[in-house]
Amino acid sequence: MSYIGKEDEVQQRRYWRWSKVDFLPEESFQNWNTYLSALSQIYSRFNDRLLSRSDDANEITQLRKQSENDMKRCLTWWDLTWFGFGSVIGAGIFVLTGQEAHHHAGPAIVLSYVASGISAMLSVFCYTEFAVEIPVAGGSFAYLRIELGDFVAFITAGNILLESIVGGAAVARAWTSYFATLLNRQPDSLRIPKGNYLLDPIAVAVLAIAATIAMISTKKTSQLNWIATALNTLVILFVLIAQFAHANTSNLTPFLPHGAKGIFQAAAIVYFAYGGFDNIATMAEETKNPSRDIPLVLLGSMSIITVVYCLMALSLSMMQKYTEIDPNAAYSMAFQSVGMKWAKYLVALGALKGMTTVLLVGALGQARYTTHIARAHMIPPWFALVHPKTGTPINATLLMTISSGLIAFFSSLDVLASLLCVSTLFIFMMMAVALLVRRYYVREVTLAINQTKLVIFLLIIIASSMGTSAYWGLRPNGWLGYVVTIPLWFLGTMGISIFLPQQRTPKVWGVPLVPWLPSLSVAINIFLMGSLGPLAFIRFGICTVAMLVYYILVGVHATYDMAHQQQKLDALKVKNEDEDKEGKA
Q1: Residue of 275, 247, 289 whose CA lies nearest to 107
Q2: Is there a contact between 71 and 392 (Cβ–Cβ < 8 Å)?
Q3: How far, in Å, CA of 88 to CA of 330, rounded?
Q4: How many angstroms separate the CA atoms of 396 and 368, rounded?
Q5: DSSP letter at 287?
Q6: Measuring CA to CA, which residue among 220, 188, 180, 164 is closest to residue 402?
Q7: Which of 44, 58, 154, 251 is deepest in the core (most CB within 10 A)?
Q8: pLDDT digits (tens, 9 = 90+) for 60-81
Q9: Locate the Cationic amino acid transporter C-terminal domain: which residues (predicted)?
Q10: Distance separating the N- and C-terminal Cα atoms of the chain
């Protein structure tokens, strides 16, 4: 592995290898004595990692050497545009719309998509500024590692992997439901009942096929994606035209059957429908002009998708009474209810195409996240390797696919979606915080007093946002709590705006209205998180505890060793340069 050796040299070895040093090359894991010694230093090592931050150059240049081979730069704005549509439009709009309209929001599901869309667009703004300046495969993981440090990046990395694994499983389960509908069968009819579980071998097979395509070639995956997404776009146009043609405004009454609380409960769940756009940022290393293409594609595709989602939600609510919407195959059954039985097959086919492209793009993006996380040694660096012939991270793709397949085989979509949304909202909230830190704090430049002010103002923003969310959950019809929490959020944001000078100016493109837009993104994401049920947070808490246990036992030692090994190499390089200068003199 390239972990040990000269800084600018990478020993070429065969790709398929399985020795211990390929998985645990760090000094702490050489034998039991070194491992026990590392555990005895856990306090000092944790403090070291808690305060340690990466930098742009390290993420862009140094860490990429861990992959031994470069990914192929083969993507253009055209590829990314279709990736943008293909990565987002899938199970969320076709499955969760009916589920949440039926159970929580009613016809007001369109407002749920508006709320989620606003939050997603704010997150897209934050992503674009980072993507312009740090074009690496790690996406949000790399951005947070630079701005918020190693420990926060690890927690985020755990949630990224959780989001990727659970998201792939959820879409694959939905794929099976719509495939059954296409065969004129009940959504669960192709699953195998086993005790309290409905086993789903088809979902596993679909995940395996998508991963195989992604491993063979990024460019070929792109070509297949844009063809399938173009066909899916035609189906969506048909759905909109046909549903509005059969619209009945009386179906919109009552518009708010479960009140405002139902809107935000649904918004927190349908946020899953907007997930996937962050996969575009992970393709920076394979994009010919990432600084120009990625921001344009993110902003353009997400703007169009938000409008399309709102129109699809509205047309469904006008076509069929929310109490009669089928939670499992809403659009197909809605057409059947108005006598267009043949149309349900077209919708099911379009949904299958949409979910297939989500799985394809997901297989690409998730593997690239995993690759960069492995480059930082937060998981074994074996998963960072890029295959010399295909130019793709095959090991990372296999890890994500096998993990998603195991979950998809057993778990239901509603369980997966609620857990996924907590992780997604948490990551996007942290991205907004990271952007504020990037603008207002630069190491060895920002004054200590300004650093303290920034921390205080950020804590006020986060705490007031949590207070607003908690009060909403406890007293959805109250108002007194908002008199305290909302002004506090306003004062925290205004404090940054007035009392802190911006320390960094974006080189090419930057988020407008800083600090207001990132602060609003923090508030909305936390609010939507609070709208999810307690069970989702229990599952999220259990997963977080598991991540911390792994970090204490493995992650902190691997990253500590790697960081200090790099410091030794840097010191040795400086020493050699000094000796060369003395020799010449």
Answers
A1: 247
A2: yes
A3: 18
A4: 7
A5: B
A6: 164
A7: 154
A8: 888 888 888 889 899 999 999 9
A9: 509-558
A10: 37
Q: Dihedral sign for Cα 378, 381, 382, 384, please.
A: positive
Q: Confirm if 347 and 355 have CB atoms less than 8 A apart.
A: no
Among residues 129, 152, 85, 140, the alpha carbon closest in space to that of 278 is found at: 140
Could you tell me what percentage of the chain is helix, strand and coil, using 3-state DSSP and rounding each to the nearest 5?
A: 75, 0, 25
Distance between CA atoms of 534 and 140, rounded to whole angstroms? 26
Q: In which element (H, E) is residue 193 found?
A: strand 192-194
Burial 432-461 (b: 16+ CB within 10 A, else e): bbbbbbbbbbeeeebeeebbebbeebbebb
Q: Are 430 and 522 spatial neighbours (Cβ–Cβ below 8 Å)?
A: no
In the three-class reduction of DSSP (H, G, I as helix; E, B as strand; rest coil), residue 256 is classed as coil
| 450/237 Cα distance (integer angstroms) | 52
29 with 93: CB under 8 angstroms?
no
Place of tokens 């504020």: 436
pLDDT in tens, 214-232: 999 999 999 999 898 888 8
Of residues 2 and 183, the one with the higher pLDDT is 183
Per-residue pLDDT for 188 more than 60? yes
What's this model's pTM, rounded to 2 decimal places?
0.85
